[in-house]
Design brief:
This protein is an alpha+beta fold. Helix content is 43%, strand content 24%.
Length: 304
């Protein structure tokens, strides 16, 4: 009997210990979330969602890491786009105490968006409203001998320009632009007109002082990808069916596109996630002063 009571007592202690660990863990996660939210609000001036908090270790360091994104994108197409997800972290000491400092990488996303907002009006003026742009901008600094360059977490285009103005030899902006225009090009005359627009955009970037380390991947995409029933017909277009059947589907999609009003067309275009943009040439920033113009059709639309 005494032995059974002892077992029950020990089991009770063990359960209480587990509950204590759970409570402590939950309390620590809540502290991490609260600290990160305050830090992000003070840094960016808006509320952030902080989720998927977990304890990590790397290079002998222990820390809490979380996914972060602005609360303002909740309910918009951006909410489901990994492009807008950043991360924040807080170091943990050997006693499990949280460091007072918090770090994050959202400044890179914020800076890309800042540059995009600056460039997009001119891009729309030249290419039209049916355009999506993705920016990858890096601010790099170097030391006195300029033998190596390191990335710098500037917040905006204005800050980068101020740094270059104050010390042009030790600061540089590396800019890579991915441009998608949803407009089918039908002939050589239209193609030449689009080349002129790209040339004008390059001239604009030169005037803005953004052309020294510049790469552009400018793509013209067949607009049937924005037809309402495109996704449900995608499998058929990609499969090895006969060309006549494919042609009928393409004609149907073209008719759908014609019936879409401009507001709906642009809305469909905005649904495309930046994290799903695919680039033929990968990271272009290694090829400075390069502009590529591609006229794209989906592979299954070629030689129908």
């Amino acid at each position: 009997m005494k032995r059974n009571l002892k077992k029950i007592f020990l089991l009770s202690l063990f359960l209480l210990f587990l509950l204590g660990l759970t409570a402590c863990g939950k309390s620590k996660v809540e502290k991490v979330e609260a600290q990160m939210k305050v830090y992000l609000y003070e840094k960016y001036g808006e509320e952030f969602v902080v989720d998927r908090i977990g304890r990590r270790s790397a290079n002998g360091e222990r820390f809490y890491e979380a996914r972060i994104y602005p609360k303002s994108i909740v309910g918009t197409p951006k909410e489901e786009d990994r492009y807008y997800y950043g991360s924040a972290s807080i170091d943990v000491d050997s006693f499990g105490r949280l460091d007072k400092e918090t770090g994050d990488d959202y400044s890179f996303i914020n800076r890309n968006d800042d540059v995009e907002k600056y460039l997009l009006p001119k891009a729309k003026e030249l290419f039209g409203e049916r355009i999506r742009m993705k920016v990858d901008v890096n601010h790099e600094k170097t030391g006195g001998d300029r033998s190596f360059w390191i990335g710098y977490k500037s917040k905006s285009l204005e800050e980068m320009r101020e740094n270059i103005k104050e010390n042009p030899q030790d600061n540089r902006i590396i800019l890579t632009l991915y441009i998608y225009i949803f407009d089918k090009i039908d002939n050589e005359e239209e193609k030449e007109e689009r080349r002129k627009q790209l040339f004008e955009f390059l001239q604009y970037l030169r005037v803005e002082g953004l052309d020294k380390y510049l790469s552009i991947d400018c793509n013209f995409m067949d607009d049937i990808v924005l037809a309402p029933s495109f996704e449900e017909n995608r499998y058929l277009l990609e499969s090895d069916t006969n060309k006549v059947e494919k042609l009928e589907v393409v004609k149907k999609l073209r008719e759908e596109v014609k019936k879409i009003n401009e507001k709906q067309f642009l809305n469909n275009m905005e649904q495309i996630r930046k994290s799903e943009f695919k680039y033929e040439y990968g990271n272009l920033s290694i090829n400075y002063n390069k502009a590529i113009m591609q006229i794209l059709s989906l592979t299954y639309l070629i030689e129908i």
